[in-house]
Amino acid sequence: MKLIDRRKLARLLVIQEISQRQLASDIGWKSHSYLGRLLRGEVDTLEPEAALRIAERLKVGVDDLFVPRVSTHSAQPARRRSAA
């Protein structure tokens, strides 16, 4: 999943008075470092299960914070059949 707006995630943490460490712990991460990287904009993707846990912990819809990751690999084009 891709984080839509890191500032929105940061605002939710401030409004709900939740630290990065607390959120990371609440969603089952051993460290808060990846969450910090998300908030700084160094990375913007994470696994769907983690995105869901973050949204549930912050009491928002997962689609309020994340969108599905779009693959950069397109499907192979369909082969043309010869008109024989």
UniProtKB/TrEMBL annotation:
Residues 9-65 form the HTH cro/C1-type domain. Coiled coil: none annotated. It holds the Pfam family HTH_3. It comes from the Bacteria. PROSITE patterns: HTH_CROC1. Gene3D superfamilies: lambda repressor-like DNA-binding domains (1.10.260.40). This is Helix-turn-helix domain-containing protein. It comes from Kribbella deserti.
